[in-house]
Amino acid sequence: MFTKITTYFLFFCRFELEEMLILIQIAINDNTIALWSVKSGERLKELKGHSGSILCATFSPNGQLIVSGSKDKTIRIWDVKSGKNLKTLSGHSDSIRDVKYLSDGQTIVSGSYDKTIRVWDVKSGNEIQRLDGHPYFVTKVSISPDGNTIVSCSGGEIIQIWS
């Protein structure tokens, strides 16, 4: 079976969960996350709120939330069912390049062009920890299954391990 989804220019595409596809579409003045059904090809929801291009997004472990990062320097937490923006996290001084949930679903890790990694509490929206040390912008973050180690990559061909 092959389902073709036609939409605007896509900056980012990620397959998540069993029945949904998360697409971030970028058109002129349109910084939108679009959720599509993989089975039907139907557009299910649009999440709007970022004022800059969306560079990353992922579902929470239970599939009920989406976290996104943007050139507007914010991280947003969205309710999948309602499509509402539940929280906006601020603290980075440049674009958010990657966001990940810890397996507990209660903590988010973000990497930014401001050369920092930040750890956030989902419930309060507060920054728990700031990790400095990259000489260049952070491009990716990854978290060990036990949540005790963060690996980050930077534009200067550097990988750092935080524990």
UniProtKB/TrEMBL annotation:
Domain of life assignment: Eukaryota
Regions crossing the membrane: none
A Pfam family annotated for this UniProt entry: WD40
Gene Ontology terms: cellular component: transferase complex
Keywords: Repeat, WD repeat
Cross-referenced CDD domains: WD40
Species of provenance: Reticulomyxa filosa
Signal peptide: none
Coiled-coil regions, chain positions: none
Protein name: G-protein beta WD-40 repeats containing protein
WD repeat coordinates: 47-88, 89-130, 131-163
